[in-house]
Design a protein that fits this description.
Number of domains: 1
Helix content: 10-25%
Order of helices and strands: EEHEEEHHEEHEEEE
Structural class: alpha+beta
Number of helices: 4
Strand content: 35-45%
CATH class: Alpha Beta
CATH topology: Alpha-Beta Plaits
CATH architecture: 2-Layer Sandwich
Length: 192
Amino acid sequence: MHAMQYEITLPADYDMDIIRRRVAERGHLLDDFPDLAVKAYLVRERGRVESPVNQYAPFYLWRAVRGMNRFLRGPGFQGLSRDFGRPRVRSWLGLAVEDGPARAGEAIAATRLLEPLAPDADPAAEIERARAALPTGLAGVHTTALAVDPDRWELVTFTLWSEPPGPGHGERYQVLHLSRPELAELPRGQHW
């Protein structure tokens, strides 16, 4: 598994309905994209749910890197780059994926928690600690994933929710659309 995200931060007075319309018109185009487990079309709005910015920030879980490569060279990403400028794309190596009790429900929210590992920390121990802390048993959890950026030694915990999560799980997003063509095929449990 590979995780990927790009963030497009928009002006404070940007009409976020433009992003909503864009997702409503185009979101379904990845509903059957090969090697894609999940694309969560995420937004944050300035002044809502403690967000300081307007932002479009889709998050992806890929079953195979070939799908990620196909997407990045394809017409969807090229169109986004043309309309907003080519964003910096973050990627992480997958460590674990787990289903939550709300897996059968609709995902309406998401959280992303970034945790840098201290230079003297044992990565294996920190990864196991983070894996044990995944919010799999919390009401409202749809799916949660843990991944690592071994360049920055940073962990990311990404969680989809069927209800708005409370504070303490990281940055909070609204899910405008969820493409999940191969989520069922993504192996559960530890990938590390």
